[in-house]
Each structure stands twice: as C-alpha cells, then as structure tokens.
Amino acid sequence: MTGDALDEPQYWYNVRTGEVERGPKSLGLDRIGPFATAEEASRALEILTERGRKWTEEDEEEDR
To answer: I need a labelling partner for 3 at 20 to 30 A (CA). Which of 43, 57, 59, 62 fits?
Structure first.
C-alpha cells in the first residue's frame, strides 16, 4: 500500500545506547517509540518527561 502510514519510516530511541534507530532494530525493552522523525526520537526522553508532567497535572486537577 503506497502512501500508507505503514510505509513511512519509523524511528525509535534506544535507551541502552542513547542512539536513534530507523526501524525496530533492538529489543523492545531497550527502545522508546515509534516516532515519525529521527529528530523526535532523539528527544524521546524529553518528550516522555513532558507527557508525564502533563499527566501528573491532570491527575492533580481531577483530585481537587
């Protein structure tokens, strides 16, 4: 299926090596993703930290 989202390359961040991988190359335990771009994958830890902060804020709002 040409043009399908599955045809687009996907990128992962390898937490063990600190490197971005094109396609799932390492064990699932070692990677975060997928991301649409290599740049996004390189910011995986920052993105996850921000998402966690937002989830915490939302949970605190719900508890009020």
So the answer is: 43
